[in-house]
Design brief:
Length: 253
């Protein structure tokens, strides 16, 4: 592990899988299960170019390095998180493959170009901006609420960046599925794979993983659901394999 300077309140956590490390802080939004699932669900090519939007501290690009030799870009609008993403690439010795940028996803195609990526991943903010004054941490607010971008902004940006035949994968709340599918088609991203994520058996889906293809033909596969917790209230076998670096059906479905 390379040495990098940590800010006050920052710490280095173990990502468990493949001995990766990650800088985090309680003052900013830490990665969650959503990002881990997205990093295993999305399609990857053995090499090429990928980009992760709303990358935060760069956790999805870090996880993707365990599945592909592609060069990977990450785009984050918040300066503090973008800086953490840069240093997370450095501490893992991945700075030559991971290119972490501070920027607005709505305009990043002006810098990186149209149709330059084989695949796009994104774990966007899920919630509309609430009404009234909010006494909350600005980093937490931006991660949870559509302050800097909304769902259409995210899908429009993804469509500009991905090449024809390329893939765009997203994790979002299951309740937004119809909105996601309609917007994907509007921007020529044909939904191709869906997987629902349930906290426990018998409960409704809390999240959905969805992947579309740029200019793809209409046809969608609904994959088996992922049940996060087993009867003993522990992570299911599949998630344990993901966290500890095992090969998973999420990776190859």
């Amino acid at each position: 592990m390379k040495q990098v300077q940590l800010r006050p309140t920052e710490r280095i956590d173990d990502l468990l899988t493949y001995d990766l490390k990650i800088i985090q802080s309680d003052e900013v939004f830490s990665f969650s299960l959503d990002a881990v699932l997205l990093g295993r669900f999305c399609s990857v090519a053995p090499k090429g170019r990928m980009i992760d939007l709303c990358t935060g501290n760069g956790v999805v690009p870090l996880l993707l390095t365990t599945r592909t030799r592609a060069e990977i870009w990450g785009v984050e609008i918040q300066e503090r998180l973008a800086d953490m993403a840069v240093r997370n690439a450095e501490i893992n010795g991945l700075e030559e493959r991971l290119h972490m940028l501070q920027g607005d996803l709505k305009t990043i195609h002006e810098t990186l170009g149209h149709g330059q990526f084989d695949a796009v991943t994104v774990n966007p903010p899920y919630l509309p901006v609430p009404n009234g004054e909010q006494n909350v941490n600005e980093h937490f607010a931006a991660a949870r609420h559509e302050i800097y971008c909304n769902l259409e902004d995210v899908i429009a940006a993804s469509a500009k960046l991905v090449k024809a035949g390329g893939k765009v994968a997203m994790v979002h709340r299951a309740t937004r599925l119809i909105d996601i599918c309609c917007l994907m088609r509007q921007y020529r991203l044909e939904p191709k794979r869906i997987r629902y994520v349930h906290a426990r058996a018998g409960e409704e889906a809390m999240m959905v993983l969805i992947e579309g293809m740029k200019d793809g033909k209409p046809e969608i596969r609904t994959l088996p659901p992922l049940i996060v917790y087993d009867d003993n209230q522990e992570y299911c076998k599949e998630l344990k394999e993901i966290y500890y670096g095992g090969r998973s059906s999420l990776e190859f479905s």
